[in-house]
Design goal:
477 residues, Amidohydrolase, 7-stranded mixed β-sheet, alpha/beta, M20 family metallopeptidase, Peptidase_M20, Peptidase_M20_dimer, 2 domains, Aminopeptidase
Length: 477
């Protein structure tokens, strides 16, 4: 490890607990990688987590909050309650062989862990197991819980779990994410929602009697054009993305009687979502009027922006300093170099700290300082919904070559091999050490709660999930 300061006996003991069971956690990670189940389809992944947790002395609530692929594993009793957040959902269309430095799908069009959630979940599992063992040995009071959270990728799983009361008595939440550098996440994120716009028209022969038809595909295209013009007139930090999920058929000589588009909207603050949502709905209604089609609006999912907590960030950073960063061997360095060779110059240099120039894998912990201004990262995460309800902290830990884009085949390849495994095991140590520190210092938890209350002063949690919405897979998946 690099940049390691004196490591305390406690942190060393926690690291050793994870090293003693490294084979188990790598096995779980590899199995989840192979399952590669997408949002709310993670049945095998959730079952595996539940089995391991029970074997490791946790009481497990399956189908937690009424969500088939969510779970909560608990150990201990009473306060404080520390939540460790795990994820295990994959992405569609990213099938890729592990340990290959060329694009090589296992099954073309199949799923793959392009965001490394096989690592995320397994690292969180490692942390929870180590915390349980430490608590038992040292008679440490309190409760540690592993939250198996489905559908982070566009499904808002944690929002449903929050809405269903699963975090009501939690004092703090800790998690991580695989990445290309090691650092404490000290930024907010974008609030988001996903909405289907389904148009229904009337089919007709496109040559002989097209005037009798009403094209739903035309409506989708007009909506997209309208939203492209709308982009100039929304705040600069807002984002609009879309995917046409149903074009209405493959025959150009038929007027398409149905078509559907899925929109993802992002804004810095959840209070801004309602206005943007309404404006996009109005564009869709206009497209329906122009084409003489009917419109159905189907809300899919959403998540809130992240509420940062500087108190918890400093606690996690202190543990990270003691543990240093993952160390990669010559073979891993060579493989990372091969991965880097597949990237464009822009990708290689994207967000690359100057100190890492010329390297293929990060070997350092990025500097951390307490900033008054809270910046916003341009991604979204349903960790945000947890952070609105309890103080939450998250780190990113090197698990892939510098420049690797998440949601890419290069990421899938690396998170299924030793580079990813080293990041995952290290994450377990950082999270576990942070959780034990919080269990041992209730005064720090109180400080984190006070900060949390201050951050939310004058604001109310706006759950992005409407009442009555049922979590489910991507439509048509």
């Amino acid at each position: 490890m690099t940049d390691v300061q004196h490591i305390s006996d406690r942190v060393q003991e926690i690291a050793d607990l994870i090293e003693n069971q490294r084979d188990l956690f790598i096995k779980v990670s590899n199995q989840i990688w192979e399952y590669a189940e997408t949002r709310y389809e993670e049945r095998q992944s959730a079952a595996l987590f539940a089995e391991v947790l029970e074997q490791e002395g946790f009481t497990v609530q399956r189908e937690a909050g009424g969500i088939p692929t969510a779970l909560v594993g608990s150990y201990g009793q009473g306060k404080p309650v520390i939540a460790v957040l795990a994820e295990y959902d994959a992405l569609s269309g990213l099938s890729q062989k592990k340990g290959e430095s060329r694009k090589a799908p296992i099954v073309s069009g199949a799923n793959g862990h392009g965001c490394g959630h096989n690592l995320l979940g397994s690292g969180a599992l490692a942390a929870a197991v180590a915390v349980r063992q430490y608590m038992e040995k040292h008679k440490l009071p309190g409760t540690v819980r592993l939250y198996g959270c489905p559908a982070e990728e566009g499904g808002g799983g944690k929002g449903f779990m929050v809405k269903n009361g699963l975090f009501a008595d939690v004092d703090a939440a800790v998690t991580w994410h695989p990445g290309t550098t090691s650092h404490i996440m000290s930024t907010s994120s974008l609030a988001t929602c996903q909405v289907y716009y389904r148009f229904k028209g009337r089919s007709a022969h496109a040559g002989g009697d097209a005037h009798l038809g009403r094209s739903a595909l035309d409506a989708v295209e007009l909506m997209n054009v309208g939203c492209n013009y709308l982009r100039e007139h929304i705040i600069s930090d807002a984002r609009l993305h879309y995917a046409i999920t149903n074009t209405g058929g493959l025959s150009p000589n038929v007027v398409q009687s149905e078509a559907e588009v899925l929109y993802k909207m992002r804004v810095p603050r959840s209070e801004q979502l309602a206005d943007l949502y309404e404006r996009i709905c109005n564009v869709a209604k206009g497209a329906a009027l122009m084409t003489g089609t009917e419109l159905e609006i189907i809300f899919d999912s959403g998540s809130s922006e992240l509420i940062v907590n500087r108190t918890l960030e400093q606690v996690m950073h202190e543990q990270f300093i003691q543990l240093g960063c993952p160390v990669f061997d010559e073979t891993e360095q060579q493989f990372a170099s091969e991965i880097r060779a597949t990237l464009s110059d822009a990708e290689k240099n994207h967000n690359l700290p100057q100190e890492l120039s010329g390297k293929v894998l990060s070997d350092r912990l990025e500097p951390y300082e307490v900033k008054q201004e809270i910046t916003v990262a341009m991604g979204s995460t349903d960790v945000g919904d947890v952070s609105w309800n309890v103080p939450t902290v998250q780190s990113w830990i090197t698990s892939m070559a510098l420049g690797t884009a998440l949601h890419s085949w290069q990421a899938v390849s690396q998170v299924g091999m030793s580079i990813g495994h080293k990041g995952m095991l290290h994450a377990g140590k950082v999270i576990a050490a942070t959780a034990v520190e919080l269990l041992s210092t209730p005064e720090v938890l109180e400080q984190a709660k006070e900060e949390h209350t201050k951050q939310l002063s004058g604001r109310s949690y706006i759950c992005p999930i409407p009442d009555g919405l049922i979590p489910g897979p991507v439509r048509g998946a």
